[in-house]
Sequence to fold (240 residues):
Amino acid sequence: MALIIVLVVIVGIIAWGVGSYNSFVRARNVIQESWRQIDVELNRRYDLIPNLVETVRGYAAHERNTLEQITALRNQARQLAASAQGAPTQERAAVEQELTQAVHGLMVSVEAYPDLKSNTNFLELQRELTDTEDRIAAARRFYNANVREYNTKIDSVPTNVIAGFAKFEKATYFEVNDPAVRQAPGVNFGEISQRPAGSAEPQQLPTNTQQPPVQPPSATPQISTDPFAQENQNKGPFQG
Fold:
């Protein structure tokens, strides 16, 4: 009887181990499949950006710095993708996020160019890029959710025993945790210096241009009624 109980326990442990191993394999395959969806959309964006840059260049000469930044980020992202054989890395995720913000900043800046906004080719590129960005965002959320579930199983007890025995390694999230990278890039309008989107010009407090009347000598000390006097003395002159 005791032998039967031991055999049942051993069979149960083996069955649990096989089931856990297979669940890791399934989770890993889902992650790989969800990553391929992101990679397809990223490569589509790589193909669209050169046409966007050339179209904008013909209408917006003042955007030269922004266009060069987008081109450089696009080339850097493709090089990172090639060096990692298409696999997700934190470095590539950071560059892709910068590229997303740079393209978004360019789309905002074209509001200053009515002729460009009415260009048929530009409008089609804008539509395709917007759809591509939406698909990238949706695919990234799906991918990161699968990675989170997979990594949790690797860390959890008792499935971490199977993960360690079978050498299942944690998957890489495709997201950016550095707040500085998440900032939208500046938009250059010629004489206006580049600065991150959302920043505002320093607000200048009004100054009192009228001279206060001269008070006659008095035994009682005079107190200034100018509400900005002390503040203007302390006031000094967003990111470049």
